[in-house]
Amino acid sequence: MTRRFTRAELEGFRDAEVPDLLPPDGRVRLLFVGINPGLWTAATQTHFAHPGNRFYPALHRAGILPGPVDPAAGLDDAQRKTLLRRGLGITNLVRRATARADELTASELREGGARLRALVRRAPPVVVAVAGITAYRTAFGERRAVVGRQPEDLEGAQLWVVPNPSGLNAHETVDTLATAYARAARAAGVLPA
After folding, report:
1. Which residues are CB-neighbours of 101 under 8 A, at least 6 positions away?
2. What is the pLDDT of residues 138-181, one digit of tens each?
């Protein structure tokens, strides 16, 4: 059941961090990279947890997850294990929680790009999928980048930029997100080619 928070309760999670969701053995096929945790995500300690976020519905629609997930309630242990068994990992460019991604500085995003490179070197996934073209462009200095497979790999992993699943991204639907996420998942071997 979806938990409800007051605005004041959520504000109490500003600047909190959410740990990466990575398997203990470090074997990740597809690493999704958010921009930074939102306040709801920090409150539930579940990535992409805001009730308006379409990340988990898109993963389900794409066939990456076998069933629906209500992240706003917080993922339970079984759901986390399902993600990890499927070879999925989740991290963020910037660790600190904010109400909106536009509260981040360009410097924070660039530092996050360097942190992501180090993470990928330590536990190399097959595919890294950064969710958000604007944040990707800033973090990696690629001003002309477009959504999709990038021409350069990231520390040996295929690099993809996929649309941001935030409800604030009105250009995308669950269906268009599912299509983009499925492409990255097929490249990672999470879905059949």
Report:
1. 35, 36, 132, 135, 166
2. 999 999 999 999 999 999 999 999 999 987 887 899 999 999 99
Q: Which helix (H) or strand (E) holds 133?
A: helix 133-140
Query: Which position has the token pair 């973090």?
Result: 139
CATH number belonging to the domain at 13-188, selected among 3.40.470.10, 3.40.50.360, 3.20.20.80, 3.30.1360.120: 3.40.470.10
DSSP-derived letter for residue 181 is H
pTM above 0.90, yes or no: yes
Residues 6+ apart with CB under 8 A from 177: 54, 55, 58, 61, 162, 163, 165
List, in sequence order, every residue forming a beta bridge with 88; answer none if it has no partner: 30
